[in-house]
Write a structure and sequence with these properties.
Elements: E1 2-3, E2 6-7, E3 23-28, E4 30-34, E5 38-42, H1 44-55, E6 64-67, E7 77-85, E8 90-97, H2 99-106, E9 112-122, E10 129-140, H3 163-194, H4 198-251, H5 259-264, H6 267-272, H7 292-307, H8 313-325
Parallel strand pairs: 1-9, 6-10
Antiparallel strand pairs: 1-2, 3-8, 4-5, 6-7, 7-8, 9-10
């Protein structure tokens, strides 16, 4: 049997020592599951539509039988009509065999028949779609559908397939199944070939490891750079404080005992260590006794530092002096 141009099989039975009959059982109803082409069903409607399409000559050519489904080569016979039998469960063909086909069949060189049909056919010129169209068929020795009726009208049921023939048919089915499995295996091998090979995986893993090492090195270098920057910022800040306290010492606004507290930023200790300031110019013969003006300046300076804890004592004294001079 061939569906859509692909070969399956059904049988034709011949009687020995008899004239080759001009009737052939083409197909019968049934459910089939081919190892290569999957499950399909032939119903009475399927057979009826095949006959109707033949009668209407939808393909526009005479129907020919061939050898082994080589439909482009010589014919083995020409079909003159189709007939439904056994309650429309069997489709039969009336065929005029060629002399060559008659000889091959009579000598039992070929014994079985395989229909060629499609479940859907579209007229290439008109675009009209037809269902269940029989193209023809071919003589073969490899049946797929078993238990087909004999084509010779005798009192018995005709010659059945021998155990050897059934075994040969089973072998053919297994061979076809093996072909399908081989194709599936090739497809799987191709998919595996497209997957990354172990050496490529190892290469990718090596690249990832190298990138991770570079990233770790970059992080370490960044941490060192941040530590150096922090150290540089602290040194700069210390230098600025050193400069500020030196100015205070030079202007007499702070004493040496306050320097460490100032550099540490401990203003509480800085104020605590403050000493009375000599407001007399250098070289003056005036005594260092703190007069009333000095007391007033220091008192006002203390008030300003209480009001603004961030205000340094030297700056507070300068502000106090300016206010008292007004």
């Amino acid at each position: 049997m061939r569906i859509n141009g692909t070969s399956l099989f059904s049988t034709i039975k011949l009687q020995e020592n008899q004239v080759v009959p001009n009737e052939v059982q083409v197909l019968r109803v049934g459910k089939f599951n081919h190892p290569r082409y999957g499950a399909f069903e032939i119903t009475t409607q399927t057979l009826a539509e095949m006959k109707a399409n033949f009668d209407a000559n939808v393909r526009g050519v005479d129907m020919a039988f061939d050898y082994f489904h080589d439909s482009d080569k010589e014919a083995s016979g020409w079909v003159s009509g189709l007939e439904l039998r056994e309650g429309n469960t069997e489709l039969w063909a009336k065929v005029q065999w060629t002399p060559k086909a008659q000889q091959k069949l009579s000598e039992r060189e070929l014994r079985y028949f395989s229909p060629d049909f499609t479940f859907k056919w579209v007229d290439p010129e008109k675009g009209t779609e037809f269902r269940n169209v029989l193209f023809g068929g071919g003589l073969t020795n490899r049946p797929f559908v078993k238990e087909m009726k004999a084509i010779v009208a005798t009192e018995n049921k005709g010659e059945e397939m021998t155990d050897l023939e059934k075994a040969q048919a089973k072998i053919k089915e297994l061979e076809t199944s093996n072909v399908k499995l081989s194709e599936d295996m090739k497809a799987m091998e191709q998919k595996m070939a497209d997957m990354p090979q172990p050496d490529k995986v190892a290469e990718l893993e090596a690249k990832i490891a190298a990138l991770q090492a570079e990233l770790a090195k970059a992080k370490q270098e960044a941490e060192v750079a941040m530590a150096e920057k922090k150290k540089a910022d602290e040194a700069k800040m210390l230098a600025e404080k050193e400069s500020q306290v030196n100015v205070l010492l030079t202007e007499g606004k702070a004493v040496a005992a306050q320097k460490d507290a100032f550099l540490k930023g401990d203003m509480t200790e800085f104020i605590k260590l403050a000493q009375p300031i000599n407001l007399n110019p250098k070289g003056s013969s005036t005594t260092n006794t703190v007069d009333d003006d000095t007391k007033s300046i220091l008192k006002l300076a203390e008030e300003k530092m209480k009001a603004d804890p961030k205000l340094q004592k030297g700056d507070a004294i300068s502000l106090a002096k300016r206010e008292l001079k007004k």
